[in-house]
Structures are given as structure tokens and as C-alpha cells.
Amino acid sequence: MSDLLREPVEYAVAVERYLTAAPLSAGSRRIYRIALVTWAWALADRPAPGGAGRRRAVPPVLPLAVLDQPHAADRLRAHLVEGGAARRTADRELSALRGAVRWWRAQGWLRTDPTAGLVPVVAPGAGPEPLTVAQVAAVLALPAPLRDQVCWHLVHESGAAIERVLALDVDDIDVSGRRGRGRAADLRWGPGAARLLPLLLVSRAGGPLLLTDRRVPGSVPAADRCPLTGRGRLSYRRAAELFTAATRELDPAGRGWTLRQLRPAGAGTPTAGPA
């Protein structure tokens, strides 16, 4: 059996098999590869690097079979909602993934099509409207876990990009000054975050400010793990999922809101960063 027909285990290998078989020019093959690698970050529940760094970044290693898992469609949808890409870019990336999935299914490597029903929802050059004052007040009054309340208050009160809030470490927080320090010295927040942060920082010696609920594997970089508990840095995807689920009951459409809508109007265009 040729290497091209042998069923791959890894997503990255399956991408290369598809690109080798597809009737694409060299330029189109390069664009398709970038798009398909970007989807790998979404499937791994990790934020994709932004800008030119996306082309040089080593994608996460994951099995092709992740596309057959029940959560695959939700993660792909979250990327479309939260990715911030213009409609043309989102269309191109989704088209590349659909083409690859069709070919993988034709080889018998996948059983399902997690791209079915997915459509880009980001308007050209714009995102969802920011929440109103009343809506923000309702969100911040939700009986959510302390970590999530801190995240939401920081996003709204500082106006910082969500990626930057998630990249904060314990050492970046000046509790008494209601401000960041060191690399985060330009960040300021209000009384809500100031009230909650001391509670979150009890017994915290260092590591990421906002943590996952569970311990992470030892392969996760030390900078993204709590040195005491072994829990990891909260990812953008997980933070977005939690916010949308928590606000579903407040959204008249019943879909739930996005974290980007929590940023105040005029806060500027979010920039990609570590998360």
C-alpha cells in the first residue's frame, strides 16, 4: 500500500496527504496549508498565533480522529465566531477545511463531517456589537465561579484584548494599585476586578492568573502551569465557551454572547497574543 493511501494517525500528516493529492498550484497549496494548520489550533482548543507568526508557528500535534469527536463541530464554530477574521478570510479557511474533510472521508479516514452547517458569521471588518450597560450589569451579576468573574471584570474594566487578559500572570498584578506591573504596566481596572482579585490570589505564589479546572500534562510549558497545583493557563477557547454558556439565558436570541462583546465600545481592535 502506498504511503498516500495508508490511513494517517496525525492531523498534520493527513493535511500533507490531502495537499499532495489535490490538484492545486504551489501558491494555492501554501494558502491551503496555512488555513488547515489554523484549524488545528481550534481543534486543540488553543488560540492560533496571529499575524505573520501564524505561518512560522509549529501547530499542535493531534489525531485526525479528533474531527470525529462530538466536540469538533463546536470548536470549529467557536473559531468562526471568535476568530475575528474578515468574511473573505473565514470563507477561504472554511472552504479549505471542507475540501480536506471531503477527501479524508472518501479515503475512509473519517466517519462524520464536522463542517456541515458551519457558516462564517463575522461581517467584513466588524464584530458583534458591544453589550449595553444593562447587559454588562446583568453579566457581571451572574453567580459564576470566581475565576470567571475576575476574567469578565478585567475584560470589561480594562478594555484589554481577551488574549492579553488570559496571558496575565500572578506577578503582573498590582492589587493595591488597581493596575498591572512589569509587562502589563499599562493596564488599569476598576472596583469590580479590584474587589475580586485579592480573593483569587489567596495562596497563589506565581504562574498564570487564570487557571484551568484540572491539572495539565507535564509537557505543557512551565510558564503556562501553576507551580503549586499543576493546573494550566485558561485557554481562549475555553474562556469563550464558558462565557457563551453562562450568558445564554440572558441573550434574547438564546445563543449566548461572546467575550469580545464584553469589551467596552471604542476599546480598539483586539490583537493576537499569548493565551
Short description:
This protein has 275 residues and is mainly alpha-helical.
How would you explain this protein's 3D organization?
The protein is mainly alpha-helical and 275 residues long. The chain folds into two domains: 11-106; 133-262, no CATH class. Helices cover 42% and strands 4% of the residues. The protein is built from eleven helices and four strands; from the N terminus they run H-H-H-H-H-H-H-H-E-E-H-E-E-H-H. The strands form two sheets. A two-stranded antiparallel sheet has the order 1-2. It has a two-stranded antiparallel sheet with strand order 3-4. A hairpin with a 4-residue loop joins strand 1 and strand 2 (179-180). Helix 1 (11-21) runs antiparallel to helix 2 (26-43), helix 2 packs across helix 5 and helix 7 (146-158) packs antiparallel against helix 9 (191-200). It is globular. The termini are far apart.
